[in-house]
Amino acid sequence: MKRLILALFLIALSYPVMEKATSLKPKAEGNSEVYPYSYERLILTFPTLKPLISDLLYMQTCYLTGNDVFNRWKERKFSRKEWKTILHNVKVMTRLDPYYFDPYYFVGSYIPWKVKDDREFLEEINNVLKSGMNYVEDWRLPFFIGFNYFYFMDDKVKGARYLKKAADMEGAPYYLKLLVPRLYAQSGKYQLAVIETAQELKRAKNEVLKKQLEKRLKALIALRDLNFALERYRKVYGRCPASLRELVERGFISEIPQDPYGGEFFVDKKSCTVWTTSNLRPVNTSSR
């Protein structure tokens, strides 16, 4: 925020600089208003004003992507090529000033929702954020990367890995420490989920978080043991059991454990794994 206030003050003193920067925009085909900037041309023209130029480009990009919201009360639809150009311009901003947080935030919080079906594009966004992690110490950068992986790209293992980086950083919300092992469990890494939760429980000092971690650990241990028993059953009989009751009847488990969240463990026939109806979230039993 301070950066933007300073930039606004400098704009009044450097109008000629803005005019020159605008004149450096390459001509685009058609009527597109999205122009790619050249890092090389900008630093040749403004060798000592790189942070200021980065601020100006960022403000122009924010205006461009939000302009039609104010004018027509509906969001402008950019083409994939235009989003590519916008991302290119953000890369230029971060090359001019790699410590400038706002462009990374724009890339992580906004653009993925516009290109969510384009895995290649999402990977390119993640690469920009990964580069930013070398300069900016903020939990939101690995959080955006992890979110993109598990939510848009359906890669829960990579998602959990980056969310753990975010969870371990100062200022990160405590719920990330619960989300990471859940993603590991959903991707079949049950033992890793148990280990992560047990380690967090040892480090936890907040009593509320401790209780949540204890409940999560109990549920994850039950899921791990049930899935291990199911795998042994498959090796013996060469098929998936019809239900958890069959594991009891065949002696693979002594009883079906209770889900501490109030749900019920069951065999997912499609994946032949054990999961729970609670989805590792508290179930409202009063509505049953």
Describe this structure in words.
The protein is mainly alpha-helical and 288 residues long. 63% of the residues lie in helices and 3% in strands. The protein is built from 14 helices and 2 strands; from the N terminus they run H-H-H-H-H-H-H-H-H-H-H-H-H-H-E-E. The protein has helices at residues 2-13, 15-23, 39-45, 50-72, 80-96, 101-109, 111-114, 119-132, 140-152, 156-167, 176-186, 190-203, 207-237, 244-249; strands at residues 265-268, 273-276. A two-stranded antiparallel ribbon has the order 1-2. A hairpin with a 4-residue loop joins strand 1 (265-268) and strand 2 (273-276). Helix 4 runs antiparallel to helix 5. The longest helix has 31 residues, at 207-237. It is elongated and about 80 Å long. It starts with a helix and ends in a 12-residue tail after the last strand. Residues 7-32 have low confidence and may be disordered.
List keywords for this structure.
288 residues, 2 strands, two-stranded antiparallel ribbon, mainly alpha, 3% strand
